[in-house]
Design goal:
Number of helices: 4
Strand order of the largest sheet: 1-2-5-6
Strand content: 25-35%
Helix content: 10-25%
Order of helices and strands: EEEEEEEEHEEHHEHE
Largest sheet: 4 strands, antiparallel
Length: about 190
């Protein structure tokens, strides 16, 4: 659930102490916490003071209801410095073809769109896709607007849980497997 659509996930259990840091990461402590978690076959212990960093980013709203912003390793800094989950941008775009937002090493946001076979053979279809992206991006807050649009005719890489593999997608861009790119107007100017 995202803050922009107003959905919350409720409150924490009373047996749980919580701390949301400046980076919005949640740490927990309490009798219901485990001593270790296993990641990639490695046991990772809680900190000596009993706090465990979950890797999840949260914010709170009315009545201490919690809003999940996303995983800390998925979060990106928007143009205004706000920490945001790229899935929020993707859902706000609301396009009828797969798109993935990535932050490039230059700091710019880019959108990778999965083009169908029809887009491969039809210039008119590609132009329609570009127009759809520009119109959708114009509805985004300025700080969330991507500056570049890349198309790929290959499936956008996903995990078994259908989450985009953003690191692999950046490799597609660098290795030019994303077949062509289009500059979108400056993020500070309406598209």
């Amino acid at each position: 659930a995202s803050q922009r659509d107003g959905k919350t996930v409720g409150r924490f259990f009373p047996s749980l102490e919580t701390n949301i840091g400046a980076d919005k990461q949640l740490s927990v402590k309490g009798t219901s916490c485990y001593a270790y978690r296993y990641t990639d076959g490695k046991a990772i212990a809680r900190k000596e003071n009993g706090w465990f960093n979950t890797g999840d980013c949260f914010s709170s709203c009315r009545d201490n209801e919690m809003i999940i912003l996303g995983r800390s390793d998925d979060m990106i800094n928007a143009a205004d410095g706000e920490r945001i989950n790229p899935e929020t941008i993707e859902s706000l775009l609301n396009l009828n073809f797969p798109v993935c937002v990535v932050k490039l090493s230059s700091g710019s946001l880019a959108l990778v769109a999965e083009a169908s076979g029809e887009a491969y053979v039809s210039r008119e279809y590609r132009e329609k896709m570009v127009l759809n992206v520009r119109e959708a991006a114009a509805r985004l807050p300025i700080s969330m607007r991507p500056k570049l649009l890349y198309f790929t005719y290959e499936a956008i890489p996903t995990s078994l849980s259908y989450k985009f593999r953003r690191k692999e997608i950046k490799v597609l861009i660098v290795s030019k497997v994303a077949n062509f790119a289009i500059d979108l107007p400056d993020a500070s100017v309406a598209i």
